[in-house]
Amino acid sequence: MTHTTYRTNAPEETQAIAAELAQHLVGGEFIALIGDLGAGKTTFTQGLVAAIGSTARVKSPTFTVMNEYAVSSHPTIRRVVHCDFYRFTKAEELGALELDEYRRLDTVIVAEWPDALPMVAWEPTYTVTISHKDEHSRTITIEEGV
Question: Among 12, 26, 48, 86, which lies 20 to 30 A Cα-Cα from 18?
Answer without folding.
Answer: 86
